Amino acid sequence: xxxxxxxxxxxxxxxxxxxxxxxxxxxxxxxxxxxxxxxxxxxxxxxxxxxxxxxxxxxxxxxxxxxxxxxxxxxxxxxxxxxxxxxxxxxxxxxxxxxxxxxxxxxxxxxxxxxxxxxxxxxxxxxxxxxxxxxxxxxxxxxxxxxxxxxxxx
Length: 154
Hints:
The protein contains 3 helices and 4 strands, in the order H-H-E-E-E-E-H. It is of the alpha+beta class. It starts with 8 loop residues before the first helix and ends with a helix. It has one domain. The protein is 25% helix and 25% strand. It holds the Pfam family AKAP28.
């Protein structure tokens, strides 16, 4: 057909972003001197509340480990997402987002901690306030796990 334009998936995502007047949200992260594991958990929860997603999603935040490096300490957290239903209260699959909070040993103590996160099965590193959360990312992870489970006979 003359006059019709065909868009690929990534072109569509770019158009979608341009059409919407959307501001990527962020929170105030703690300074290095005030950081604790519990505060890290609370701040991740506060940050996740800035994301747009359907109300049927539930998540839990787990502290995984503290890593001591030469110039910083890294605190790792896992946020496990699922959509339990009345018919299936135990979900068939979950999707995880892994957060890392870096507390510098060399920067002044009044500097904020550095935060980044990755979605399970993905290598792209996100930073709060720099990329927009997409619920589709969680759905894709769960869908791929369910498809993989269906190919395995127990």
